[in-house]
Specification:
elongated; mainly alpha; 98 residues
């Protein structure tokens, strides 16, 4: 419990940066990335302030740098639009329907 709550561990005498992830909204992700950039990409400080994992902050910042704000949209579980599908994807979708 202490390990996941950023508390000091007496056995190792160090500070942990591992936090259990939480769900965030698109607006929260934008705020977190903005905060991180304003603080010279201090991932640890950003993760602690917003109570998300260090790795998640790092990933969001990389997505933002590559794709801009649109990179922060969570597309998991959403179907592709037919005009964005390749021929192979269209054939796979037709096969599933059959």
């Amino acid at each position: 419990m202490k390990y996941n709550s950023h508390e000091r561990l007496k056995e190792y005498g160090g500070k942990s940066n591992i936090t259990k992830g939480r769900k965030t909204t698109y607006e929260e992700r934008i705020e977190i990335v903005t905060y991180c950039i304003e603080n010279n990409k201090n991932y640890d400080l950003t993760a602690q302030k917003h109570e998300v994992s260090y790795q998640q902050v790092y990933t969001w910042l990389k997505k933002y740098e590559e794709k801009g704000i649109d990179g922060l949209v969570d597309n998991r579980g959403k179907k592709k639009h037919e005009n964005n599908m390749s021929e192979i994807d269209k054939l796979r979708a037709q096969n599933k329907l059959l």
